[in-house]
Design brief:
The chain has a single domain, classed as Aldolase class I (TIM Barrel, Alpha-Beta Barrel). Helices cover about 35% and strands about 25% of the residues. It is built from eleven helices and twelve strands. β1 and β2 form a beta hairpin. It is globular and about 40 Å long. The chain starts with 7 loop residues before the first strand and ends with a helix. About 55% of the residues are buried. The model has no long low-confidence stretch (mean pLDDT about 90).
């Protein structure tokens, strides 16, 4: 099954210390808390979400899955009717496979894919189109380890490489505008869309329904929205209806 046959607005449920948190600019300790992950997830499903974006923030920073039980609870609660993509601290094909075996639709690989690109092909052999490679860019280069280390890699060039390895899509996060509610930049998204033929999921900076529309116009297959939805800047339905 191809990811995102039509454009989707995907609510983010980022988990830190068992609670939903939205970081500003990817900086640890800047987060505002939004309560229990299962309640948040249920709220977005009730509001019409077709897919949820779950991230273990502690896992992303520490390199091992720290909120696995909270994320399992969410996957169980939303059931089969809602797509679930999970990232944060997935560092091996075993980690990825255990999530996919447990009913997760897509795994998000960032640091692991950069450090060991072969892992993408390895997982894709058993689970085709199940890997979203997370390319987080700061100052025009891919960053890893919870956005703390630059790699010197160009995001569009990296996207082409991962497509060749069997990635089912690219999750592109513009870290420079992440969590700031100041709007999006469409140019970096457009560059990746033009370089590859797999779905590109855009993330970072969405503050208005106009931002959602701009990313859709830039060719994104889906947009992940966190802070703007939690802060009530617009509703999920308004975002879906704008495209």
């Amino acid at each position: 099954m191809s990811a995102f046959p039509e454009f989707e607005v995907v609510p983010a449920v980022d988990v830190q210390d068992g609670q939903v948190v939205q970081l500003v600019g990817g900086e640890r300790g800047t987060g505002k808390r939004y309560g229990d992950p299962v309640e948040a997830a249920q709220r977005w499903v009730d509001a019409g979400a077709r897919t949820l974006h779950l991230v273990d923030l502690d896992g992303a920073f520490e390199g091992e899955r720290a909120n696995a039980s909270a994320i399992e609870r969410v996957v169980e609660a939303v059931g089969d009717g809602t797509g679930v993509q999970v990232g944060g601290g997935i560092r091996s094909s075993e980690d990825a496979r255990s999530l996919l075996d447990s009913g997760v639709d897509r795994v998000i690989l960032g640091t692991a894919a950069v450090e060991e690109p072969g892992i993408v092909a390895e997982i894709s052999e058993t689970y085709p189109e199940s890997v979203l490679v997370s390319l987080d860019a700061k100052g025009g280069e891919v960053v890893v380890s919870g956005w703390t280390e630059g790699t010197g890699i160009d995001p569009a060039e990296a996207a082409v490489r991962y497509e060749e390895l069997g990635a089912g899509g690219i999750l592109f996060t513009d870290v420079d505008v992440e969590g700031q509610l100041e709007g999006v930049r469409t140019e970096p998204v457009r560059r990746i869309v033009e370089a590859t033929s797999i779905p590109v999921v855009a993330s970072g900076g969405v503050a208005s329904v106009e931002d959602v529309r701009a990313l859709a116009d830039a060719g994104a297959a889906a947009v992940v929205v966190g802070t703007a939805l939690y802060e009530g800047r617009f509703t999920l339905r308004e975002a879906q209806e704008t495209v």
